[in-house]
Amino acid sequence: MRNILTIIRKEFQQFFRDSGNVRMILAMPIIQLLILPLAADYEVQNIQLCVVDHDHSWYVNEMIQKITSSGYVQLTAYEESMDKAMQLFEHDKADIILEIMPNFEKELITQNEASIGISINAINGPRASIGGQYLQSILQDYNQQIRLKWIQFPKINPLPMLKTEFSYWFNPSMDYRHFMVPGILVILLTMVGANLSALNFVKEKEIGTIEQINVSPIKKYEFILGKLIPFWIMGQFVLTIGLCIAYWIYGIRPEGSIGLIYMFSTFYLFVVLSFGLLISTYVNTQQQTMLISFFFMMIFILLSGLYTSIDSMPEWAQVVTIFNPIAYFVKVNRMVIMKGSDFWDILPSILAMIAMAIVLISWSVLNYRKKA
Amino acid sequence: MNNEYIIEVDSLTKKFGSFTAVDKISFTVKRGEIFGFLGANGAGKTTAIKMLSGLLQASSGSARVIDFNINKESEKIKANIGYMSQRFSLYDDLTVLENMKFYGGIYGLSNSKIQMKTDEIVKVLHIQDYKDKLVKSLPLGWKQKLAFSISILHEPPLVFLDEPTGGVDPVTRREFWELIVAAAHQGTTLFVTTHYMDEAEYCDTVSIMVDGRIEAMGSPKYLKEQFNSPDIHTLFVSLARQSKRTEI
């Protein structure tokens, strides 16, 4: 026990000696949480629309006005020919081309039907599909509008209509930030935990002090716990900063118990820290550590359900997420913060974390050799 | 503990693939002596020292260090030896005192004992004004003397020093050897590797390693007579020239 305390004291002395570390651990959560939720969201705005108008009629004008008045679509060009519009596409200056055929208005009135062409620039997939959907729904709306003008209502509506209205639970205003902030908090904690612990351990290998440790009577588990605990404390500190920012800046206060979040992060941090340590027992330089942890972070983050829903991943990927600690914390954080889940709801995730922590810590203790 | 020898090595061998770094060496080290382990770069000195201190598994052969078998009881050996590696082993970003407290702590010394030892070291090394300075700000010679003092902080009966004076100026080397001799007077056994042949004269027993084998061993006086050599340096050069290893 005293040995572990000796190591913890030394780690803190070294950590605070380097003012860069202190600045990083303070600045990282603040900057990430201030910038990311405001900037990185799914809402598609400023869709650049190019209209190729072969008709020049009153209806076309009205329609374009309807489209641009939504606020999501900007009319950036008004071309005479499809060729010119395609050039804009090629230079990425337009997202959608709306081609209005000659005699649009005439056909609409006389034949009760007219067609328009929509071409979408699919370089940016999500933007294209969401932009297309916007445009389609605006056009549908417009369609309804002009039809209403023309149709004389019979006494009884011959076509009963189903009208759907959504109510969004747990995030009634569909505020994107409420969804992102808990997730980003998890990424932060993971980065701080896994990277700091891995780099710290490998640094001892690089400068050679590890040999002096290995030739001492200190036990492997003592050394590893002494290395983990300081970063565990720093992880909880970063979490606290993050939760404060979430509350002060975004007004997000957990629906559930804040103690539950800390309880989960207690186990979660042991998982990511020991994962970092495990990496460091396999590599020899800080450079290798960074590359490998970057590799795993990529996979873990993209398959964590932070950006894309796990439920819509292919089945094999869903299996992979069972072993992805980030996915658990993202889920638990959202459950507790947004839905107010209680201990029993997150118990399965806690158990999963405990299991992972035990496996990873034992693995790193086994793989760390005091004797080559 | 009444055994005359603190180290007994029997056919100790280390192979790295097809390369035999240490080739069936056998020797003994007497309790309380300064044992000089000489050899050119790549002769296998560090490999041998690492096996004896429990850092490296031997390929074959065995050795007894203090009262423990290196193949089975390396953790017990570690509790009873001091070790100063070729690479500088203190934490650069900790102060002199913080380093002493850390190493004292991991060897399980009580706080009062650590306090006593640090006071003593600070006094002996005359570093009163530097005890709260970062180790990286000290000159190399001072660092080495400090590293040695810390390696015997827990008062082990046996200390391994792997090229402790590499890159150190002659004056500081002399001061360093004064520390080693002082430790020997207190009854500590010192196992020192070096390739400075003048340092061999401080040793009670010298062994010269060439290509993983011990080619000569005995007191400096005995060796000079046996090989009819004016000094250890001449003897060493004539032995080392026989080496077939490319590292030299």
Characterise the protein shown here.
The complex is a heterodimer of chains A (372) and B (248). In chain A, 67% of the residues lie in helices and 6% in strands. Chain A is of the alpha/beta class and 372 residues long. Chain A has two domains: 2-40 and 176-367, no CATH class; 47-150, abc type-2 transporter like domain (abc type-2 transporter like fold), CATH 3.40.1710.10. In chain A, strands 2-1-3-4 form a four-stranded mixed sheet, sandwiched between helices. In chain A, β1, α3 and β2 form a beta-alpha-beta unit. In chain A, α10 (258-282) runs parallel beside α14. Chain B has one domain (5-240): Rossmann fold (3-Layer(aba) Sandwich), CATH 3.40.50. Chain B contains eight helices and ten strands. A six-stranded mixed sheet of chain B has the order 6-7-8-3-9-10, with helices on both faces. In chain B, α3 crosses α4 (111-124) and α5 (140-151) packs parallel to α6. Chain B is globular and about 50 Å long. In chain B, 46% of the residues are buried. Chains A and B meet through α1 and α8 of A and α2 and α3 of B.
**Distance between the ends of chain B:** 40 Å
Q: List unreliable stretches of 5+ residues of chain A.
A: none
Mean pLDDT across the residues of chain B is: 89
Number of domains of chain B: 1
Stated plainly, the CATH topology of chain B is called: Rossmann fold
CATH superfamily of chain B: P-loop containing nucleotide triphosphate hydrolases
| Residue windows where pLDDT falls under 50 for at least 5 positions of chain B | none
Radius of gyration of chain B: 18 Å
**Structural class label of chain A:** alpha/beta
Question: How many helices of chain B does DSSP assign?
Answer: 8
Order of helices and strands of chain B: EEEHEEHEHHHEHEEEHH
Cα separation of the termini of chain A: 26 Å
Q: Looking at the structure, what is the overall shape of chain B?
A: globular
Identify the quaternary structure here: heterodimer
* Number of individual domains of chain A: 2
Structural class of chain B: alpha/beta
Radius of gyration of chain A equals: 28 Å
